[in-house]
Design goal:
- The complex is a heterodimer of chains A (113) and B (112).
- Chain A is built from no helices and 11 strands.
- The relative contact order of chain A is 0.33.
- The radius of gyration of chain A is 13 Å and the shape is globular.
- By secondary structure, chain A is mainly β.
- With 112 residues, chain B is an all-beta fold.
- Chain B contains no helices and 11 strands.
- In chain B, strands 2, 4, 5, 9, 10 and 11 form a 6-stranded mixed β-sheet that branches.
- The radius of gyration of chain B is 13 Å and the shape is globular.
- Classes of the chains: A mainly beta (113), B mainly beta (112).
Chain lengths: 113, 112
């Protein structure tokens, strides 16, 4: 069974631009969560999607948004990029909202110049 | 505010020794406590997890000890191997929320 896949793996953007990251969950998994990992702040929850609906949102500004499609694939978008948005963005999937086991993808490394 | 506190920040253990990483939490609504292992350039991988209705869970060389009254839990890695060298994260969440709160991580180095 294929794991969580994320594309692209690496991205370089400049301040003010916007970026879209993609996540394909494990087959059969319907819940997708996004996390940001930085050396300073560690791993922080961004948001969770289930059945194309955002269920939970972390403490991030509105520049961070996401969506989920009917096939459970998810995208997150960051608009008006800032230098501090440079991070590893991780996607995790679980079977459903009652199944707490979350499996992470390899992440997308975003660098903002 | 860090909801899950993890220590130590780094740990060096000899091959064959026991690695112990500790975590503490404040939110008594947490009811699922996983540990993740992360290698450089990779995403975190789920190692083992426990719920507060049990005090210990063992899977191979990995054991979680859970103390509900003290709001603490720990990971023990028995017979530590150089291949265990990685960063370990404890985490916690409330049932059904799927919002993991992570500790700050422990960088484990196992020397041959």
């Amino acid at each position: 069974k294929a794991g969580v896949t994320q594309t692209p793996r690496y991205l370089i953007k400049t301040r003010g631009q916007q970026v879209t990251l993609s996540c394909s969950p494990i087959s059969g998994h319907r819940s997708v969560s996004w996390y940001q990992q930085t050396p300073g702040q560690g791993l922080q929850f961004l948001f969770e999607y289930f059945s194309e609906t955002q269920r939970n949102k972390g403490n991030f500004p509105g520049r961070f948004s996401g969506r989920q499609f009917s096939n459970s694939r998810s995208e997150m978008n960051v608009s008006t990029l800032e230098l501090g948005d440079s991070a590893l963005y991780l996607c995790a999937s679980s079977r459903n909202v009652r199944d707490n086991e979350q499996f992470f993808g390899p992440g997308t490394r975003l660098t903002v110049l | 505010q860090q909801q899950v506190k993890q220590s130590p920040q780094s740990l060096i253990v000899q091959k064959g020794g026991i690695s112990i990483i500790n975590c503490a939490y404040e939110n008594t609504a947490f009811d699922y406590f996983p540990w993740y292992q992360q290698f450089p350039g990779k995403g975190p991988a789920l190692l083992i997890a426990i719920r507060p209705d049990v005090s210990e869970k063992k899977e191979g060389r990995f054991t979680i000890s859970f103390n509900k009254s003290a709001k603490q839990f720990s990971l023990h890695i028995m017979d530590s191997q150089p291949g265990d060298s990685a960063t370990y994260f404890c985490a916690a969440l409330v049932e059904g929320a799927n919002n993991l709160f992570f500790g700050t991580g422990t960088r484990l180095t196992v020397i041959p």
